[in-house]
């Protein structure tokens, strides 16, 4: 798993990842880093420490007061927090479709990141 450029940010180091996502238990990551987390098999992957996305026309949805940019992938979907610095990226395989239904599991962790003032609205 690639460690994002801003993974050493104190907000990422302090993030409290959930014990389960999509009813799947948390599993080890390589490297073992507080900014990284994974759950289940196939793995749902979350990485804290990406640059906050600039204003965009990309599809955006709000889940439990956290905004996420949505990118459809050939084997699932990628979600990136919008309006948070640093940002979190979550990759959810299509085995867990519909993928957005699992974002509430990650909302509390994402909500702890500093807000930039940007939002979906």
Itemize the secondary structure elements and their pairings.
Blueprint: H1 10-13, E1 20-21, E2 24-27, E3 36-39, E4 44-50, E5 60-63, E6 66-73, E7 76-82, E8 87-93, H2 104-111
Antiparallel strand pairs: 1-2, 2-3, 3-4, 4-8, 5-6, 6-7, 7-8
Describe it.
- The structure is a single chain.
- The chain is mostly beta strands and 121 residues long.
- It is built from two helices and eight strands.
- The chain has helices at 10-13, 104-111; strands at 20-21, 24-27, 36-39, 44-50, 60-63, 66-73, 76-82, 87-93.
- The chain has an eight-stranded antiparallel β-sheet, with helices on one face.
- The longest helix has 8 residues, at 104-111.
- The radius of gyration is 13 Å and the shape is globular.
- The protein starts with 9 loop residues before the first helix and ends in a 10-residue tail after the last helix.
Question: Any descriptors?
Answer:
121 residues; eight-stranded antiparallel beta sheet; 10% helix; globular
String of helices and strands: HEEEEEEEEH
Shape: globular
| Helical coverage, percent range | under 10%
Number of helices: 2
Strand content: 35-45%
Measure the end-to-end span: 32 Å
- Which consecutive residue ranges, at least 5 long each, have pLDDT under 50? none
Rg over CA atoms: 13 Å
Total number of β-strand segments? Answer: 8
The largest pleated sheet is described as: 8 strands, antiparallel
């Amino acid at each position: 798993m690639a460690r994002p450029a801003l993974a050493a940010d104190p907000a990422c180091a302090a993030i409290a990842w959930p014990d389960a996502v999509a009813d799947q238990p948390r599993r080890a990551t390589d490297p073992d880093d507080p900014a990284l987390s994974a759950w289940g098999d196939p793995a749902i992957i979350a990485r804290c420490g990406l640059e906050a996305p600039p204003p965009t026309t990309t599809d955006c949805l709000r889940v439990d007061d956290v905004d996420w940019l949505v990118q459809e992938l050939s084997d699932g979907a990628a979600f990136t927090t919008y309006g948070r610095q640093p940002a979190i990226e979550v990759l959810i395989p299509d085995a867990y479709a519909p993928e957005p239904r699992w974002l509430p599991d990650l909302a509390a962790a994402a909500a702890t990141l500093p807000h930039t003032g940007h939002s979906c609205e």
